[in-house]
Specification:
mainly alpha; Na+/H+ antiporter like fold; 0% strand; bile acid:sodium symporter activity; Na+/solute_symporter_sf
């Protein structure tokens, strides 16, 4: 019998977590908010989260391009790299973290389950903020969630089969509902974008405001339900894992994408998809596999991981935008200097041509009609420049 109140076998059976005596030794569940195990509250939260996911994925679908999605489907190299990062790197990383910090019992099993979960829907928002490839991001989320039906049992069997033989239940119904909540609104958003770009922009703006409000409300509800004191009652080793594991996931995902020489926006996308795990799915597995009263405060590890994975991703995103703005400013200055130099060289050439003309007059005009195309070319160039300016203005207004 482990300190978590669950009978376990295998190499983790005789291990205990430092600090778990006060954190997990309450089988009565006194540290748990009674609302967390209230069926009506759970149903309300599930409905609210489903509506939130539908609106979020519909808005993200309005950013996707139909032909780009087809390119990723026909040449799924980026999705294959994401698959390796999601179901090879993260489970191995979770297994290594379990042994590195000496976790045992249900704490070790919880970390392994979270490491084997597919990417979370938050990764799509983070990829958008990181100026990543949204088409690749959503394709990776859909594929990883679909493949999770087979890959999660396989990964849990490979890395923790001594712990999962008789306890862990894979919630295939929850995975199926998650797939429906992702695929259907995304497909609708792609269709709206394909039919009317203006309608897609309106939905993107309105949906962005709604998603922001729901995130704020969700954080307030989470603080009320979980409580800072309950989150801090988690064993210190689990807190360390919650801090280090997403950071390593982001870094290893970017390195993996860089090794295969993906474009930079795809590298950021793979990084976000690798480090972000579906903590809600992990909590569903724990609820279906073990009574909440027996799980104890280990049940708080997935939401704590979700907090740190979001905070660390936002730090990476801010650093990227600062670096991109600095490099963009330097590049703009170099382009300006090059343009001024080119303009000065052109003026010098004109002066030299005038010096070589008799009596210093203007150069003789050719009698053929080749120069008649010059005004048309200038007009066409001006029109292209104006159109490019209008497109840039539209992008800036949308952002």
């Amino acid at each position: 019998m482990s300190a978590d109140g669950v009978a376990l076998d295998g190499p983790f059976a005789n291990q205990t977590d430092p600090g778990s005596e006060t954190a997990v030794n309450n089988t009565s569940g006194s540290l748990l908010n009674p609302l967390l195990i209230n069926p009506r509250v759970n149903l309300t939260m599930n409905i609210w989260m489903s509506v939130f996911v539908v609106i979020m994925m519909l808005s993200l679908g309005c950013t996707m391009e139909y032909h780009v999605v087809l390119q990723h489907v026909k040449k799924p190299f980026g999705m294959f790299i994401g698959f390796l990062s999601q179901f090879v790197i993260m489970p191995a990383l979770a297994y290594g973290m379990v042994h590195a910090v000496g976790l045992g019992g249900l704490s070790a099993l919880t970390v392994l389950i979270l490491g084997c979960c597919p990417g979370g829907k938050v990764s799509n928002i983070l990829a958008l903020l990181a100026a990543g490839d949204m088409n690749l991001s959503i394709c990776m989320t859909v594929c990883s969630t679909t493949l999770a039906m087979g890959m999660m049992p396989l990964c849990l069997w490979l890395y923790g089969r001594e712990l999962t033989d008789s306890h862990t239940v894979i919630p295939y119904d929850s995975i199926g509902i998650t797939l429906v909540c992702i695929i259907v609104p995304v497909a609708v958003g792609v269709y709206i974008k394909y039919r009317s770009d203006r309608a897609a922009k309106i939905i993107l703006r309105v949906g962005g405001v709604i998603v922001l409000l729901q995130l704020v409300i969700g954080m307030c509800i989470a603080v009320f339900l979980w409580g800072i004191d309950r989150l801090l009652s988690i064993p210190r080793t689990l807190i360390l894992v919650a801090v280090v594991m997403p950071f390593c996931g982001y870094v290893l995902g970017y390195i993996m994408a860089s090794i295969f020489r993906l474009p930079h926006n795809c590298r950021r996308t793979v990084s976000m998809e690798t480090g972000c795990q579906n903590s809600g799915l992990c909590m569903s597995i724990l609820k279906l596999s073990f009574p909440v009263q027996e799980v104890g405060t280990v049940f708080f590890f997935p939401p704590l991981y979700a907090i740190f994975q979001t905070v660390e991703a936002l730090i990476f995103i801010v650093l990227y935008h600062v670096w991109a703005r600095k490099c963009g400013k330097e590049k703009g200055e170099l382009n300006l200097l090059a343009a001024l130099k080119k303009k000065g060289q052109h003026a010098q050439n004109v002066m030299n041509d005038r010096d070589h003309q008799p009596n210093g007059g203007p150069p003789e005009r050719s009698t053929d009609c080749s120069d008649l195309a010059t005004p048309v070319a200038v007009s066409s160039s001006s029109a292209d420049h104006n159109a490019s300016g209008r497109r840039l203005t539209e992008w800036e207004s949308m952002l």
